[in-house]
Amino acid sequence: MIAEFFQRPVLDVARALIGAELYVDGVGGRIVEVEAYHPDDQASHAYGNRRTARNGAMFLAGGHAYVYRSYGVHWCLNLVCEAEGLAAAVLLRALEPTRGLDEMRARRGAVGDRLLCSGPGRLCEALGVTRDQDGLRLDRPPFEVIARTGEPELLVGTRIGLTKAPDLPWRFGLAGSRYLSRPFRA
């Protein structure tokens, strides 16, 4: 199921991930915010189909994790999409924490539940994601992905913090969620 789900167009996968659940070693929750990246997108780490040591996992078949360090500070978790060699991925921006909250609080310190997984760096810290998970399959431990049930109301907007391709409406969120990393513009 995982391979079939992720080996589809990245924008379709990004939309379908809203409301799905993600767990890393049993810790995680419901996905409420994502951003899509495609190799034709100037903001993608694989723009121009350039493979590097950092982005190599993006070139795996859909259904793998791509983990990278942002600004040398925070880990970011992406879920690889589409066919092997295409290098498309969905960045996880926020989760609604539902399982393993005590572990998340221990990893993140004394923050309120709303901020445990709100933002890509916070999400990875709360779930214990590091470069060690880069390239791992999403259908095997430590990962568990559970498809959503139903069709949630989606928010659509531009991605956050980009200087290249900043106007693409490739950020998706769960309408009404208090766990989003930032509000969507009306």
CATH architecture: Roll
CATH topology: 3-methyladenine DNA Glycosylase, Chain A
Largest sheet: 8 strands, antiparallel
Structural class: alpha+beta
How many helical stretches?
A: 4
Strand content: 25-35%
Overall CATH class: Alpha Beta
Low-confidence stretches: none
Taking the alpha carbons of the first and last residues, their distance comes to 35 Å
Total domain modules: 1
The CATH superfamily appears as: Methylpurine-DNA glycosylase (MPG)
In round numbers, the mean pLDDT is 91
Q: What series of H and E elements makes up the topology? A: HHEEEEEHHEEE
Gross morphology is globular
- Oligomeric grouping of the chains: single chain
- Count of strand segments: 8
> What is the helix content?
10-25%
- Gyration radius (Cα, Å) is 15 Å
Protein architecture, described:
The protein is α+β, with helices and mostly antiparallel strands and 186 residues long. It has a single domain (2-174), classed as 3-methyladenine DNA Glycosylase, Chain A. The chain contains 4 helices and 8 strands, in the order ααβββββααβββ. The chain has helices at 2-6, 10-17, 101-108, 120-127, and strands spanning 21-24, 27-37, 65-70, 74-81, 88-99, 143-146, 154-157, 171-174. Strands 1, 2, 3, 4, 5, 6, 7 and 8 form an 8-stranded antiparallel beta sheet that branches. A hairpin with a 6-residue loop joins β4 (74-81) and β5. α3 (101-108) crosses α4. It starts with a helix and ends in a 12-residue tail after the last strand. The mean pLDDT is 91.
